[in-house]
Write a structure and sequence with these properties.
The protein has 13 helices and 19 strands. The protein is an alpha/beta fold.
């Protein structure tokens, strides 16, 4: 059997795509390997969202191309968002790769590998329209790589048009998967021993807006909570405009849904939010977060912010700082605005120089570190259930509480013996840090 190695870059949504892709490739007669030098085929599932991600993708492609000289690699395939964004321009310039497949071509990749082997391809790229891409129906072939948790992608594309974002162009309009298909996948993950399911899509809480039958994200959450009662359910990438009272109530009354709200707001200056095309103002956001905390005592808030957006003045930035001081998010990620000529925001005036944008990012991250540390101190002396990921060192295990999402938040170090991934243990918290906790279990 020919071996295939898949390198995944970018967000968990990409990882979810790669796991489905790995299953399809394995079902087509190939062997998936975690060792790139052993692979006959290497696929890089790229990210092309911001400049840093683009640069990382190119660096990884060039690095993996070396296995064509030093390993068994015969064909290197570049797939995903970077390929979709730059299409033939990338294919012409990045000659180290053998084939380029856009975001609408994931389901075609097993056949593309066979064509490469047979030498039948005339062109070295395939970029079908992303909006014509049919969401793959779930089957048992998906290969989960993140036990004891798993990402479950509930929709593809995006119906919104934020001026700083290229995703609708790369992924097409919103297409929600059928609830029956999602529930089937969740039940299978539970049977496989998954302890936490993380729901993802571009704007996860927009799920169902394309159905026009009243079935929305709250409906899906309710059905999932009933179907996999012994599994934690977490959702990432919510949009403020679809975090409504019904959704808050759904989270509050279902104990296996994490009281964790990941809601990227991007900014808090009304002027900047308007230029971003976000559709809400700072007063709306403050009321939303107040409502969440009023209805759910242990609610945890996470957000994402952008500094250096065109037109961002000192006054705009100060409004963002004041907003963070007032809301006091439990977790926050901050990015600098990424300027690209294919974005609507490229045409906005009063650009902010990159150095200023980075300085502002650092200020916000330092502010968030202090807030996070203060919040973490409140857990000292308490006993919390922790889901064990695995061994961190000879002395400690690494795990996550309900308020620590995989990959993006801190972890909890557990001093214990004879634990294994997937165990949920009660941990007495003894120490708190900027983002992490430590205790005895």
């Amino acid at each position: 059997m020919k071996k295939v190695y898949i390198e995944t870059l970018g967000c968990p949504r990409n990882l979810a795509d790669s796991e489905v892709l790995a299953g399809m490739i394995a079902s087509s007669g190939y062997e998936i390997t975690n060792i790139p030098e052993d692979a006959s085929y290497i696929i890089v599932n790229t990210c092309g969202f911001i400049e840093d991600a683009i640069n990382e993708s190119v660096d990884v492609i060039l690095s993996l191309a070396e296995y064509k000289k030093t390993g068994n690699c015969r064909f290197l395939v570049v797939a995903g968002c970077l390929a979709q964004r730059f299409k033939t321009e990338l294919a012409d310039e990045l000659t180290e790769a053998d084939f380029f497949a856009g975001t609408g071509a994931y389901s075609d990749l097993p056949g593309i590998l066979k064509d490469l082997e047979a030498g039948g391809n005339v062109k070295n790229y395939f970029f079908p329209d992303p909006q014509c891409f049919k969401l793959p129906e779930y089957d048992d072939s998906k290969i989960v790589s993140t036990y004891p948790y798993a990402y479950l992608k509930i929709a593809e594309g995006c119906a919104r048009h934020c001026t700083f974002c290229i995703i609708p162009e790369l992924r097409g309009p919103l297409r929600s998967r059928s609830p029956e298909n999602i529930i089937k996948e969740a039940e299978k993950l539970a049977e496989q021993g998954i302890k936490e399911i993380v729901l993802v899509s571009q704007e996860t809480t927009d799920y169902g807006k394309d159905f026009n039958n009243g079935y929305d994200f709250s409906s899906l959450l309710t059905d999932l909570a009933r179907s996999v009662k012994d599994v934690r359910i977490r959702f990432m990438y919510g949009h403020p405009l679809t975090i409504n009272k019904r959704l808050i109530e759904t989270v509050a009354k279902n104990p296996n849904i994490c009281s964790y709200f990941d809601i990227p707001v991007q900014h808090a200056s009304d002027e900047i939010l308007k230029k971003m095309g976000r559709g809400y103002d700072s007063a709306f956001l403050k009321n939303l977060f107040s409502e969440i905390r009023k209805n759910i005592d242990d609610a945890v808030l996470r957000t994402t912010l952008i500094t250096g957006f065109p037109g961002e003045t000192k006054e705009d930035f100060q409004k963002l700082c004041d907003f963070m001081d007032e809301v006091r998010f439990d977790h926050a990620g901050v990015f600098t605005y990424s300027e690209m000529d294919d974005l609507p925001s490229f045409h906005l005036k009063n650009k902010v120089d990159p150095e200023t944008a980075e300085q502002r990012r650092v200020v916000l991250m330092e502010k968030q570190a202090l807030i996070s540390q203060e919040k973490n101190y409140t857990y000292c002396g308490k006993t919390l259930p922790v889901l064990i990921d695995g061994k961190d060192s000879d002395d400690f295990y690494a795990g996550r509480t309900v308020f620590q999402a995989p990959e993006v938040d801190g972890i909890t170090y557990v001093d214990s013996k004879s634990l294994k991934p997937g165990d949920i243990v009660n941990v007495y918290i003894t120490d708190a840090f900027d983002y992490d906790l430590a205790g005895n279990g």
